Structures are given as C-alpha cells and as structure tokens.
Amino acid sequence: MEFLVGLAEGFIGMFQEGGEVFMGLVTGIIPTLICLITAVNAIIKMVGEERINRFAMKCTKNIILRYSVFPVLAVFFLTNPMAYTFGRFLPEKQKPAFYDSAVSFVHPVTGLFPHANPAELFVYMGIAAGITELGLSLGPLAIRFFLVGILVILIRGIVTEFLTVRMMKAKGMDVDQGSVKA
C-alpha cells in the first residue's frame, strides 16, 4: 500500500514540478522573448521588407557572405524555423548548403539572441548554470559560442555546397539550372 501511495505522490509531484518550471518561464524568459520578437519585427517594418530582400540578394553573391552573414541575418530576423525561407534567394545548388548553415546556427545564436530559437534556450541555460555556479560571467561564453558558430556554419556551408555540386554533376544535372540535362 505504501508503494502505491509513494507512486501516486511521485506522479503528481512530477506535474507540480513541471508547473513550477513553467511559472518560472512565464515570469522570467517569456516576457523577454516577446519583447525581442516585437523589436525584431519593428526593425523589419522600419527598414522595409523590400530593402531586406535586396540586401539578401547581394549577400548571396559571395560565398563567404552566403554562409556567414546571410544565415546569421536569416536566423536573427526570421528566427527558427522561418529562417530557412531565406533559401528562396539562392539557386538550387546552394539551397542545401544554406539550410545546413542556417540550421547549424540556431544553436550558437541562443546565448546572445534567445528570441531566435527559444526552444534551444533550455540547452544553453543548462550550460550557463554551470558557468554561473563557478562565478563566471555568461557574456564571454555567449560571444565565443556565437563566433565559433559563425566559423562552423561557414565551413559547413562551403563543404556542403561543394558536395552538392559534385553530386548534382554525378547525377547528370545541370549545376547552373538545377535540372536534369536532356
């Protein structure tokens, strides 16, 4: 009988603990995320979608910008998962590499800009808890995470584009058009 009582108390205790965590989020990070999302949307409205689109088209012409600045802007302004729609500015041969870069950046961006991928915040906060327990500042961690993330997405983008072009050629596809040669 004691076993069943302990099991029942443990079961409801799990949900009570979940409720406490949820309330911590509601009074902590969620208002911050709402403010950040509002600010980003305001910036997009002030700058204008057309200007952002033109800038995006220019960024995709250079391989370094295409897999560093372009995914960072996509993740910052559109957040996860909408950031991947920036791939529309790219030819077919570059879309897989852009996706690889953007999806790889939704993690490192979290320390500085949690609005970009709030779901990833739990992982970052777990790491941050250990850093703060040591009495260290989170700023340097967030900046290093961000900068290393940019380097990683650049490397991944270039390698993925190289591999994509190679595979397209092996399949007899026209690399410039992204279609099968007749």
Can you summarize this structure?
With 182 residues, this protein is mainly alpha-helical. It contains 8 helices and 2 strands; from the N terminus they run H-H-H-H-H-H-H-H-E-E. It has helices spanning 2-27, 29-47, 49-59, 63-66, 69-78, 95-105, 121-133, 138-170; strands at residues 173-174, 179-180.
What does this structure look like?
Helices cover 70% and strands 2% of the residues. It has 182 residues and is mainly α. It has two domains: 1-47; 50-181, no CATH class. The chain has a two-stranded antiparallel sheet with strand order 1-2. Strand 1 and strand 2 (179-180) form a beta hairpin. It is elongated and about 70 Å long. The N and C termini lie far apart (76 Å).
Task: Chart the SSEs and their pairings.
Blueprint: H1 2-27, H2 29-47, H3 49-59, H4 63-66, H5 69-78, H6 95-105, H7 121-133, H8 138-170, E1 173-174, E2 179-180
Antiparallel strand pairs: 1-2
Helix pairs in contact: 5-6, 6-8
State the helix count: 8
Low-pLDDT stretches: none
Number of domains: 2
Strand order, main sheet: write it out. 1-2
What's the average pLDDT?
85
Strand percent estimate: under 5%
- Tally the beta strands: 2
- The helix fraction, in percent, is 55-70%
GO biological process, one term: phosphoenolpyruvate-dependent sugar phosphotransferase system
Pfam families: EII-GUT (PF03608)
Protein name: PTS sorbitol transporter subunit IIC
Transmembrane segments: 21-44, 64-84, 141-163
